[in-house]
């Protein structure tokens, strides 16, 4: 196993010195340690340098969105605290103090290049609740149309565990999916993903390119430094999330000269995590299976259960005997076996709960009568949007 990994990585390290990118829209995520000069306070020089690179891209018409961490770390500095507080209220207070500095610095750095910027503070709830998701997407789209640069962070002051992303690597990947970004760049304090944590192992080697879905990446990704949240593990997870939307990720050091412009132009710096159509579906199913909060349930008969579990089919309305809960089209629901009451799958549903109730038990041919002839939805949950849990 270890040898296999070494071989794969050895090969991957030497492939491609340039990358064939065509980037119109890019998300750049910058971690706390980088932004705050390793906890010494906001690194204005570095921020102005990244802003200069972003401005070059902006001038060429590339749309950039920033996910900027560092609010808590900067709050800790501003309050002269010796270390990151443990108590939630103190962390939240630090975030609200530090966020002021973060936004002010980004605004000043970008306006020097004539770029207006804006602040978006998000929680997980904002992206998992459909109407809030649509609102957020609408606002983001408008900002991009106006050529304003959105600076995104987690809304730390109001987050509690259930609505937390917990790390901005994940938030960046969700943002990438939301705006259909062509590339997700994670700037961190290491040159890329190494075969082992380079802080502990000086012999660790950098991986230049790998499939985001390669499982061994989880084995080699460790924790982060004392300022960041998730270490390499959350970056690998985020790479998979981005891959689900067809977006590749580059994990790279923010200290490299002109790093952002070089990555976008296709220079092979850092680690590239790739994706393809097949991986997109695998990643999507894993994401569905990992969903904790379901918006409702579809109870299915034995025939439908067999079609799903044994024949890899989509769920048709005719097999749905009961619709439980209230949900919107596009929400994630659980699929329950009528006879056993057991959850057999989770999936993203094509109907709202009201419409699902109208079509449950109906054969496809009846749809015209229910929805009129323009209705194209015939599948309740498509098999690509369905993850088996048995
Ligand atoms: N396999 C690995 N390759 C590179 N870095 C790793 C690896 N495993 C763990 N790390 C650690 O992850 C850290 C980056 O994560 P983190 O401290 O959360 O930074 P950020 O603030 O940029 O999100 C690195 O400094 C490194 O110590
Ligand atoms: N929202 C938090 C960032 C948390 C986080 O993910 O930090 P990091 O691992 O440095 O990107 C803050 O601004 O302090």
From TrEMBL:
It comes from the Bacteria. CDD domains: AAK_G5K_ProB, PUA_G5K. GO terms for molecular function: ATP binding; glutamate 5-kinase activity; RNA binding. It is found in: Cytoplasm. PROSITE patterns: GLUTAMATE_5_KINASE (PS00902), PUA (PS50890). It is an enzyme of class 2 (transferase). Pfam families: AA_kinase (PF00696), PUA (PF01472). Residues 296-380 form the PUA domain. Keywords: Amino-acid biosynthesis, ATP-binding, Cytoplasm, Kinase, Nucleotide-binding, Proline biosynthesis, Transferase. Its EC number is 2.7.2.11. Pathway: Amino-acid biosynthesis; L-proline biosynthesis; L-glutamate 5-semialdehyde from L-glutamate: step 1/2. ATP binds at residues 29, 188-189. Belongs to the glutamate 5-kinase family. Catalyzes the transfer of a phosphate group to glutamate to form L-glutamate 5-phosphate. HAMAP family: ProB. This is Glutamate 5-kinase.
């Amino acid at each position: 196993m270890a040898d296999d990994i070494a071989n794969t990585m050895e090969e991957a390290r030497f492939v491609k010195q340039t990358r064939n990118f065509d980037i119109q829209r890019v998300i750049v995520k910058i971690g706390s340690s980088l932004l705050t000069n390793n906890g010494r306070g906001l690194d204005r020089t570095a921020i102005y340098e990244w802003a200069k690179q972003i401005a070059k891209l902006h001038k060429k018409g590339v749309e950039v969105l920033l996910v900027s961490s560092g609010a808590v770390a900067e709050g800790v500095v501003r309050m002269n605290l010796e270390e990151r507080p443990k108590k939630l209220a103190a962390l939240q207070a630090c975030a609200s103090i530090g966020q002021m500095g973060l936004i002010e610095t980004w605004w000043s750095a970008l306006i020097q290049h004539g770029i207006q910027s804006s602040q978006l503070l998000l929680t997980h709830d904002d992206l998992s609740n459909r109407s809030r998701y649509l609102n957020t997407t609408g606002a983001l789209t408008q900002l991009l149309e106006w050529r304003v640069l959105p600076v995104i962070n987690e809304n730390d002051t109001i987050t509690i565990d259930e609505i937390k992303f917990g790390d901005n690597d994940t938030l960046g990947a969700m943002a990438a999916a939301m705006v259909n970004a062509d590339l997700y760049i994670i700037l961190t304090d290491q040159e890329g993903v190494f075969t082992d944590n380079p802080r502990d192992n000086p012999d660790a080697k950098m991986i230049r390119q790998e499939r985001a879905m390669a499982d061994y990446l989880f084995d080699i990704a460790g924790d982060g430094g004392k300022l960041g949240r998730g270490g390499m593990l959350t970056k690998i997870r985020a790479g998979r999330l981005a891959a689900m939307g067809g977006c590749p990720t580059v994990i790279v050091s923010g200290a490299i000269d002109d790093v952002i412009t070089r990555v976008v132009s296709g220079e092979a710096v850092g680690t590239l995590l790739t994706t393809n159509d097949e991986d997109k579906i695998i990643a999507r199913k894993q994401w569905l299976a990992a969903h904790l909060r379901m918006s409702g349930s579809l109870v299915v008969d034995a025939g439908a259960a067999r079609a799903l579990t044994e024949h890899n089919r989509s769920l048709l309305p005719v097999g749905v005997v009961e619709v439980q809960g209230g949900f919107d089209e596009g929400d994630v629901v659980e699929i329950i076996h009528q006879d056993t009451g057991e959850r057999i799958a989770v999936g993203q549903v094509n109907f709202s709960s009201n419409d699902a109730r109208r079509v449950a038990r109906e054969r496809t041919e009846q749809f015209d009568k229910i929805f009129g002839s323009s209705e194209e939805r015939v599948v309740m949950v498509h098999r690509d949007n369905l993850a088996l849990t048995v």
